[in-house]
Amino acid sequence: MFQHHPSFDRHKLVTARHDDASGLSAIIAVHDDSRGPAIGGCRISPYATPDAALNDVLRLSRGMTYKTAIADIPYGGGKAVIIADPRTDKTRALLEAMGDFVESLNGVYITSFDSGSTLDDVRTIGTRTRFSAGTLPEAGDASQSTAEGVFVCMRAAAELALGRPTLEGCRVAVQGVGNVGGRLVRLLADAGAQIWVADANETLAREVAAETGAALCGIDEVHRIDADIFSPNALGAVLNERSIPELRAKVVVGGANNQLATPDDDLRLRAAGITYCPDFLANAGGIVNLHYQRSTWAPARLAEHIEGLAATFREIFETAAKTGAGTGAIANAIAEDRIRAAGGQR
What we know:
The chain has 346 residues and is an alpha/beta fold. It has eleven helices and eleven strands.
């Protein structure tokens, strides 16, 4: 049945588990493992329907394949989703059952935290499986590395597209100030940027604004701010046929997954004169962090690797300027070349 879903893309494995005793209802998807075992977070969300959960796990696991390839780390793409409300349904029994599910795949998929799950949740899952990542004490929270990756790509985009050598004085509208967005706002404030923030959690937005001196605006209005840079760090599909004409920023760089509603939106942005840093490049810092946690923890090498994401964006930007192609399509091509070089079929 999975093979007939519109978001199915030659995934290597899609498997579900339902456990009445713990209340677990989960799906794990492995998109591609030609470059190494699949890695990706475990999302916990009260999906409206099982199909919505399946669609999410298929799309997100595919995105992880491209993210690990563009970041040039030896992993493939995977994802897990648990159909549950993280505020009310998370129990130790449910997380332990998820650990058993991951362990049953014998290393084909390595899990970590994601929306709705925390480092503590991953530690609990890890009591029942060898195949979890992100809990090395000295590494801190990998979300910081994600934010740093967004920041260095944003800095490169500002230089290339706006002629600004630093982000000091740049006007940045940030949509979403959670684990990644909040950390990004702090980095931007330290860099001297002028910042607007918005979040569906208005209390959180107010707290971040008060801490950093950012201005507040509505979650549905932030993309229309007269800013230099728009940074989506919450929901996917925010760059679409309706929203792109409303953008006033000339650069888009953010940490959200699946920012483009359709592949056509890549060219829509280019036609509007907007420089877009592909999401799976901008937000790859976190997965790079997990790579070093699972190999040899080396903070200096991690920092160098994250800076390399900006170098990759420079390459993409220059290719787009020469060819007229969308930056998203160019990033996809780089990732697919690396996957094919490892024997994959993308």
